[in-house]
Amino acid sequence: MSEQTRGRLRIVDERDEEFAGSVIVQDGTGNMVADCNIFGPLSEEVCLANARRLVACWNACEGIGTEALEATLVSDIDEMGAQAINDRSELIGALQMAEGWLRPSGASKGHKEGWAIKEDHDRIVALLAKHGKKP
What we know:
By secondary structure, this protein is of the alpha+beta class. The chain has helices at 44-60, 66-71, 74-102, 112-130, and strands at residues 9-13, 22-27, 32-37. It has a three-stranded antiparallel β-sheet, covered by helices on one side. It is elongated, with a radius of gyration of 25 Å. The termini are far apart.
């Protein structure tokens, strides 16, 4: 199997430039990956919409192998997304619980273990803040 273009794609709308009548999809180095000719059977709006969808899908799937994409059903992707959302919620709940357990108390601040706990606590608080959550 041959290698596909790597990296993200972008739309170069050249309807008024060198390739008048085309909506071009290029890779990051400027190589043409797709060309939608607006003078063909598709309207200008459909050509641009197709190019946008191609680029959005390509870029969203960056890092996923072609074989994996071909073998995956849309229902599987929906299920994986729902599972990821549930997992995230569970992990945030666990972090919030751990933050309460590790919250430094005045008695432990003078001990070496107390400082290690404070560092762990600070990391947990930072992770929760990253996801818009409070301890």
